[in-house]
Design brief:
The protein has about 160 residues and is of the alpha+beta class. It has a single domain, classed as Alpha-D-Glucose-1,6-Bisphosphate, Chain A, domain 4 (2-Layer Sandwich). The protein has an eight-stranded antiparallel sheet. A hairpin with a 5-residue loop joins strand 4 and strand 5. Belongs to the AHA1 family.
């Protein structure tokens, strides 16, 4: 399994997931740069993602929805704030309505995804920071830790294809 560590820091309002992949940094980054590849790993296996807009450059916007087992849709959006290809990118991530517009009152996270070479592949460090402890707790209660772990664990299959 790629996920090697999960850390919740309530004082800093962060969730950090570390994973390791048997592929070079540029190959791991390419998954996030290509919406068709990203669809295969963004979201738990039972909630596949569909990316509608995907502009992975500073100032770019990404919109997507995940489809649940009973056909229900859950939207999301990113505002890309920095890109340092292939070493990582930063973005704000939030919940979206049926028109893929931000949902007021739902948690928004500031995210840093970093990819660094290690012997035999890449170490990825995914850090999400929330404005309040309540927002972090809300997404933890919604299952973000388990969902993220199962999504990230799909990357090995994609890399092996």
């Amino acid at each position: 399994m790629p996920v090697t560590d999960v850390q919740k820091d309530l004082d800093q309002r962060t969730l950090t997931i570390t994973a390791e992949f048997a592929a070079p940094v540029d190959r791991v980054f390419a998954i996030y740069a290509d919406p068709r590849q990203l669809e295969r790993v963004w979201g738990p296996p039972s909630f596949p993602a569909t990316f509608v807009d995907h502009d992975l450059r500073e100032g770019g916007r990404v919109t997507y929805y995940m489809t649940g087992p009973e056909g229900q849709r859950f939207g999301g959006w990113w505002e890309v704030t920095a890109v340092d290809a292939p070493h990582g990118f930063d973005f704000r991530d939030g919940f979206a309505d049926d028109d893929l517009q931000p949902v007021e009152g739902m948690p928004v996270s500031t995210n840093t995804f970093r990819f660094e070479p290690i012997e035999g592949g890449t170490r990825a460090v995914y850090t999400s920071t929330y404005a309040t402890l309540e927002a972090l707790q809300q997404v933890i209660d919604m299952g973000v830790e388990e969902g993220s772990r199962s999504a990230i664990d799909q990357i090995d299959v994609l890399l092996a294809a």
